Amino acid sequence: MATPAPAPTAPGSLRRIVAASLIGTTIEWYDFFLYGSAAALVFNKLFFPNEEPLVGTLLSFLTYAVGFAARPVGALVFGHYGDRLGRKRLLVLSLLLMGGATFCIGLLPTFGTIGVAAPVLLTMLRLVQGFALGGEWGGAVLLVSEHGDANRRGFWASWPQTGAPAGQLLATGVLSALTALLSDDAFTSWGWRIPFLLSGVLVMVGLWIRLSVDESPVFKAALARAEARKAEESAIERLPLVSVLRDHWRDVLVAMGARMAENISYYVITAFVLVYSVEHAALGKQTALNAVLIASAVHFAVIPAWGALSDRVGRRPVYLLGAAGVGLWAFPFFALIDTRSFPALLLAVTGGLVLHGAMYAPQAAFFSEMFATRMRYSGASIGAQFASVAAGAPAPLIATALLAAYDSSVPISLYVIAAALLTLVAVGVAKETRGRDLDSLDGGTAQDAPLARSGRAG
Fold it and tell me: Where are the beta strands (DSSP E) in 197-295?
């Protein structure tokens, strides 16, 4: 028996869904980026005080990278249950896990108090952060993508993506205010804890908003169809992961390749830039934070514009423009910072993030449109988060190691360019997805999760 297609979401309801996704992702990215900024600025002194400054920074970034290792696990777990139970429940859980871990980091004793147990506990909490974020991204973008219409999906789905620069803006803004108001000793002693403890308040706000939204109508319709087919055909539904790897493995590889330049460039531009500006270019900590702060505001503003453009010209052209752009910007980026001028530093970071936005904005709709509804959470999350292990996780670590080994930005620029070339190939061979009907039941990439016959083969 046919199940009616989901009714279009009313504009007012869609805006509420977008707001709920945006606020939730902002809080989650605030927590995640706060750790990255603290790793670049103070964790080397607090948790690895017996090491040389650059070595301590490398160890801090190593704990930072550990969080990325947990993201694929989060993608698998949240993707499986998100495709089985729905998007909303898992988004509430991810928010609670992330906020709880971040709040606990603010209470952690340092190396000077409990010795080696301090970095061990820090690493464990970072793993919880990574696990939660691995499940957050896919659910947040799908909740919006599946509520919106195909004509403006790129624009609406790009709004949860602005949670990344909004979280970066919030985290950097709080850190910048504290470093301006407090002495270095006070900030290192206790001031660094304040932004982490603030997460507890932010999570309560995000939780209240997320609980007020409805489940995706596309998901509910697909679930009803799957239940009806199981009843009528005595069929059992494959696990979402099995269906993704069997029917969408090419799309997973495309998504992973597409993430390489986007992920690597972002963490070089926003996290490693703090190390390079302070340690190599001899700029002040406050100067570097202010540059990232202003550039993140611009990044927030341009992402919806790039998303809207992808609705007009397609996801691939906008994404390819961004990948080529960050590759071409790699050498000018460091050359501008080396002038030791704040306007030049600001131009370097802002230019890089504007070009990054051309990849990040259409990514939500692009990945959502690749996968069928009952495997979409798993497919989009796996493609995005498995790539983060090879891309975003080691990016600040690799960049810092290259700087320590060569005392030059040239190898780091070549590293970013190599990532850009890989993304250009991946997106270049992908199919355009703009305008695809997420509720479609035809063959190809928009079908529902296949059912396997139980009992006698038919």
Answer: 235-237
**Higher pLDDT pick, 232 / 36:** 36
CB atoms within 10 A of CB 1: 8
Distances (CA, A) of 116 to 61, 105, 242, 289, 326: 17, 15, 41, 29, 39
Copy the structure tokens of residue 287.
Answer: 């100067």
Question: Does residue 440 surpass a pLDDT of 70?
Answer: no
Tokens 């932004």: give the residue.
195
Rounded Cα distance between 366 and 364, Å, is 6
Counting runs of H as helices and runs of E as strands, what totals does the chain give? Answer: 20, 2
Q: At what angle do helices 53-85 and 117-145 cross, to 10 degrees?
A: 40
Decide if 60 contacts 48 (C-beta within 8 A).
yes
Task: Say which DSSP state 122 is in.
Answer: H
- If one compares 126 and 346, the residue with the highest pLDDT of the two is 346
Segment 163-183 mean pLDDT:
85
- Global confidence as pTM: 0.80
pLDDT, mean of residues 183-207: 86
C-alpha pair distances (Å), 32 with each of 4, 97, 134, 167, 278: 40, 12, 11, 8, 22
CA 249/CA 226 separation, integer angstroms: 22
Q: Does the pLDDT value for residue 454 go beyond 60?
A: no
The whole-number pLDDT of residue 235 equals 54
Nearest CA to 306 out of 353, 269, 254 is that of 353
Tokens 């002693």, residue located: 189
6 DSSP assignment: P
How far, in Å, CA of 15 to CA of 37, rounded? 31
